[in-house]
Amino acid sequence: MGRVPQRFLLALTVIVALVAGCSSGSRETTAPDTAAQSTIVPGTTAPGATAPPPPDKSDRSGTAPTAELPITSRELDFARGKDRPLPTTVWYPTEGEKPFPLVVFSHGLTSEPEAYAAILKAWAKAGFVVAAPKFPHTKYQARDYDPVDVINQPADASEVITRMLAYGKKHGDLIDPTRIAAAGHSAGGITTIGLLSANRDDRLTAAVVLSGRQVLPIPFQGDAVPTLFVHGKLDKTVPFKDGKAAFDAVRWPKALLTVTEGGHVAITKEFPPVIATTTDFLRYALYGDATARGRLEKDATKGGLATLTDRL
After folding, report:
1. Contact (Cβ atoms closer than 8 angstroms) between residue 256 and residue 244
2. Model confidence at 207: pLDDT above 60
3. What is the 3-class SS of the chain, one letter each residue?
4. Residues contacting 8, CB < 8 A, separation 6+
5. Is residue 15 included in any domain, yes or no?
6. How many CB atoms lie within 10 A of CB 230?
7. Are 163 and 90 in contact (CB under 8 A)?
8. Residue 231 main-chain phi, psi, to 5 deg
9. Cα 212 to Cα 58, 68, 85, 246, distances in angstroms
10. Structural domains of the chain, count
11. Residue range of the domain that includes 120
12. For residue 49, is it within any domain?
């Protein structure tokens, strides 16, 4: 019939999945994100579109820091309308050459930015402004928890980008508006893919998807955005095959870090190959850092804990 009946059926599928298999929420995103697998509104371009050309790395301004930078943090009260508060934790360097690239990070179901502090602080120390909102209905201890609300999170993340660019202008040109990445874990990975699909944000120039999966029949629309996928081979919440399917669907420069013994949550903690590889990728994609590009494979496979499929 039309989109409304289709969306109703998709929402019903989500509800059934939740009743059948949802566990209690926690800071570590234990609720199965597979329950959110069909929640982003379809609205893609026609099938058969030609793949966009790889991006031109020569237009990346700024010099990548050569050492870790001191950082600080702020709590900012953003919102997308009065009914969608988006309190956002921001980590950013206090020294170094401004403006810095921006990374907007989306958390998983029943989680929060603080649960990812190890990796987010590592990115900030490497020369990035990292902004991580709490989503109103999927955050840790949400009063009105609703996993179906993932449908609205790509627009929330775009709003945070807009607010952060305004914040950056007011604070000494802190942020470079031409160098913006989206990243996210689990349902946040779904949110990130949404930003590259039906809810496309054309300001993005890179993306990192941790333990995510595609939910659209025709994802990844628009101009090329280099994308790094990270997935644990032992993930029981979002199976590895689903993350691999999302990787396979991308028609632009991409890479897949496979954590051999990794589960769903462990890869977002203090896990050296993931921290090092995601940092290398962001430095390469947003700074054009050839040195980071050169060490990507070595950092990814150090210790034999992960493998890298590199098609960047």
Report:
1. yes
2. yes
3. CCHHHHHHHHHHHHHHHHHHHCCCCCCCCCCCHHHHCCCCCCCCCCCCCCCCCCCCHHHCCCCCCCCCCCEEEEEEEEECCCCCEEEEEEEEECCCCCCEEEEEEECCCCECHHHHHHHHHHHHHCCCEEEEECCCCCECCCCCCCHHHHHHHHHHHHHHHHHHHHHHHHCCCCEEEEEEEEEEECHHHHHHHHHCCCCCCCCCCEEEEECCCCCCCCCCCCCCCCEEEEEECCCCCCCHHHHHHHHHHCCCCEEEEEECCCCCCHHHCCCHHHHHHHHHHHHHHHHCCHHHHHCHHHHHHHHHCEEEEEEC
4. none
5. yes
6. 30
7. no
8. -150, 140
9. 30, 28, 24, 8
10. 1
11. 3-42+57-311
12. no
Distance in angstroms (rounded) separating the CA atoms of residues 11 and 288: 41
**CA–CA gap between residue 160 and residue 152 (Å, rounded):** 13
Q: Which of 8-22, 134-148, 237-251 bottoms out in mean pLDDT, i.e. has the lowest? A: 8-22
- Is the Cβ–Cβ distance between 206 and 31 less than 8 Å? no
**Is 50 domain-assigned?**
no
Residue 120: pLDDT above 90? yes
Read off the tokens for 196: 């590259």
pLDDT at 204 over 90: yes
CA distances from 9 to 4, 15, 250 (A): 9, 10, 27
Instruction: Output the average pLDDT for the chain.
Output: 84
- CATH code of the domain in which 10 resides: 3.40.50.1820
How far is Cα 183 from Cα 115, in angstroms, rounded to an integer?
15
- Considering Cα of 220, then 282, then 129, then 272, what sign does the dihedral take? positive
